[in-house]
From TrEMBL:
Its EC number is 6.3.5.3. SMART domains: GATase_5. One of its GO terms (molecular function) is ATP binding. It comes from Methanocella arvoryzae (strain DSM 22066 / NBRC 105507 / MRE50). The gene is purQ. One of its GO terms (cellular component) is cytoplasm. This is Phosphoribosylformylglycinamidine synthase, glutamine amidotransferase domain. PANTHER family: PHOSPHORIBOSYLFORMYLGLYCINAMIDINE SYNTHASE (PTHR10099:SF1). Keywords: ATP-binding, Cytoplasm, Glutamine amidotransferase, Hydrolase, Ligase, Nucleotide-binding, Purine biosynthesis. One of its GO terms (biological process) is 'de novo' IMP biosynthetic process. InterPro entries: Class_I_gatase-like, PRibForGlyAmidine_synth_PurQ. The keyword Cytoplasm applies.
Amino acid sequence: MAGKVKSLVLTGYGINSEVETAYANTLAGADAKIVHINDVIDGLVKVDDYHLLNFPGGFSYGDDLGSGKAFANKVLYAKTPTGPMIDHIQKFIDDGKLIIGICNGFQILVKMGLLPAFDKNYTGQTATVFYNDKGFRDQWVRLKVNTESQCVFTRGISRIDMPVRHGEGKFIPGSQEVLARLWKNGHVALQYADSAYQPTQQFPDNPNGSVDAIAGICDETGRVFGLMPHPEAFNHITNHPQYTRLREQASRKGIALKEEGDGIKVWRNAVEYIEANLL
């Protein structure tokens, strides 16, 4: 397809960050459309017509059965007029397109089996996202990027700040073998970090107790990415809790403080990849 990058932002059943997510896509140069999941299932909207699929944050189905589980099952077992929805998502990935899941979206991807998807098995769950060690957290976190990861969305980024707002964000691999494979094959993309941007298990820098401080992972292609923090919520520098300090520091150095929030880099990477490889 020629033209602008087309991004599909799913909503429905308790997803509540779709507007922020669509806005972040737009700032990055994509043509974003918010669509209810039922419109995809009913065949009114086709994922094949898009380059990027977004699973935003929220509390789908009130986190009943565990965060993301009910929504994951809905997608896994839904039948569209042209076949199972999961088959369309599998084709979407096979066609070289991109998927991102944020917070509840990350939980959905993990519980569907889309992440980490060892050996391109996109329906077998090998990890989970569980209750935080110390309850619901609404705060900002520092993140260290694994520059050895193949993740498309984090290219050119070494560290970044983002907010979190979740009660079930503790990433737990299914076994030590799964954890070892996550590291060996470059699936780990983000880790919670301390003030020196080094990975940490210490609360509150690690807000949920995730194993190995893992905050985000990708599949083996690097094109399917999920993370608990919210990059879409850092779309402008004024979102940052230390904005006034950053502004003063920039003023004293006589430099201009860029207005765009660093979270938009995630979608800029996606847009640039799509423009280079799919348009």
